[in-house]
Write a structure and sequence with these properties.
Order of helices and strands of chain B: EEEEEEEEEEE
Low-confidence stretches of chain B: none
Strand content of chain B: over 45%
Structural class of chain A: mainly beta
Largest interface: A-B, 21 and 22 residues
Largest sheet of chain B: 7 strands, mixed
Number of strands of chain B: 11
Low-confidence stretches of chain A: none
Structural class of chain B: mainly beta
Helix content of chain B: under 10%
Number of strands of chain A: 11
Mean pLDDT of chain A: 93
Oligomer: heterodimer
Helix content of chain A: under 10%
Chain lengths: 109, 113
């Protein structure tokens, strides 16, 4: 059974701080890794994708991948109240995208 | 211009009824999916179709039957609805069934009474 684990939170950070979201996965053969953001009552929307070890930056977001440790993280710099949402880590195995249960992020003004 | 659309947005029905949810994507993608998100917000794959052919069928009761009339449409029919079927059902699509990003529809909120 392929698993993707996330701390459910909530993770509370003040506005302007760095939010760090973590994810571990069980399938060593996984090749693609995604972070989705889901606002309450809305559908998941892609924030970042990462395919190779190391860091990938896009604006205020940085995804980090360590395949040896089977670990993916998402850093959000200069957190804003509008970043308050549930962040879903998703891992692609052979042909199935497996989601974690999500981490709720709360950014207080 | 919505990329992945679903109808209806909300569906309230009685136990034992049969209902359908429709999904359409205008992205030109080859692969479409159905996901179920339960009350604990856990998002889980149900089915995947590539060019109208079923490629993934997770452990889902056979009361659920997907149908893909063409590669831009993937509908979900549910027979004999049960209380436990209450959830949000998301349709998604991707360029193919490989490692590409999946794009989600707005979801259909199903409540079975």
């Amino acid at each position: 059974q392929k698993e993707v684990e996330q701390n459910s939170g909530p993770l509370s950070v003040p506005e302007g701080a760095i939010a760090s979201l973590n994810c571990t996965y069980s399938d060593r053969g996984s090749q693609s890794f995604f972070w989705y953001r889901q606002y309450s009552g809305k559908s998941p929307e892609l924030i970042m994708s990462i395919y190779s070890n190391g860091d990938k930056e896009d604006g205020r977001f940085t995804a980090q991948l360590n395949k040896a440790s089977q670990y993916v993280s998402l850093l959000i710099r200069d957190s804003q109240p509008s970043d308050s949402a549930t962040y879903l880590c998703a891992v692609m195995g052979y042909s199935t995208l497996t989601f974690g249960k999500g981490t709720m992020l709360l950014v207080s003004p | 211009d919505t990329a992945v659309s679903q109808t209806p947005k909300y569906l309230v029905t009685q136990m034992g009824n049969d209902k359908s949810i429709k999904c359409e994507q205008n992205l030109g993608h080859d692969t479409m999916y159905w996901y179920k998100q339960d009350s604990k917000k856990f998002l889980k794959i149900m089915f995947s179709y590539n060019n109208k052919e079923l490629i993934i069928n997770e452990t889902v009761p056979n009361r659920f039957s997907p149908k893909s009339p063409d590669k831009a449409h993937l509908n979900l029919h549910i027979n004999s609805l049960e209380l436990g079927d209450s959830a949000v059902y998301f349709c998604a699509s991707s360029q193919d069934s490989g490692q590409e990003t999946q794009y989600f529809g707005p979801g259909t909120r199903l409540l079975v009474l």
